[in-house]
Amino acid sequence: MRRLAELLDLDPPGPDLVEAATFDRMREHADRLAPDPAGVLKDRRAFFRNGRSGQGSALLGAAGRARYQARAAALAPPDLLTWLHRGR
User: Fold this and answer.
1) Residues 6+ apart with CB under 8 A from 53
2) Which CA distances in Å does 16 have to 6, 25, 63?
3) For residue 87, what pLDDT is reported?
4) What pTM, to 2 d.p., does this model score?
5) H or E element: which one contains 71?
6) Pair 68, 60: CB distance under 8 Å
7) Cα 30 to Cα 82: distance, rounded to the nearest angstrom
8) What is the maximal distance between C-alpha atoms in the chain?
9) Which pLDDT belongs to residue 88?
10) DSSP secondary structure string, 16-50?
11) Cβ neighbours for 11, distance < 8 A, ≥ 6 positions apart
């Protein structure tokens, strides 16, 4: 958070804000914080797992990953997808 604030030329976040942004705190308030306008999440708390890149792909089989890749390619340009999927 501090690095992002620095990049955006903002005041550094206070300790309360940093604590509120932890995965544990976000999971505690998942009903309010997890986006689910289509009502597809089985567990809103699971939305805040741990933030590792590529973690969600373990939840999909080969067919699910192929559907994801096709849908992502239809919605976003290749350079954005390269950035989004970095670190996998």
Assistant:
1) 85, 86, 87, 88
2) 18, 11, 42
3) 62
4) 0.50
5) helix 62-75
6) yes
7) 29
8) 45
9) 56
10) HHHHHTSHHHHHHTHHHHS--TT---S-GGGGGS-
11) 5
Q: Read off φ and ψ for residue 77, nearest 5 degrees.
A: -70, 155
Tokens 């590792």 found at: 52
pLDDT in tens, 28-80: 999 889 888 888 888 888 888 776 666 677 778 899 889 999 999 999 999 99
Which residue did the predictor score with more confidence, 55 or 7?
Answer: 7
- The number of CA neighbours under 13 Å toward the Cβ of 51 is 6
Q: What single DSSP character describes residue 55?
A: G
What tokens appear for 68 in the block? 């994801």
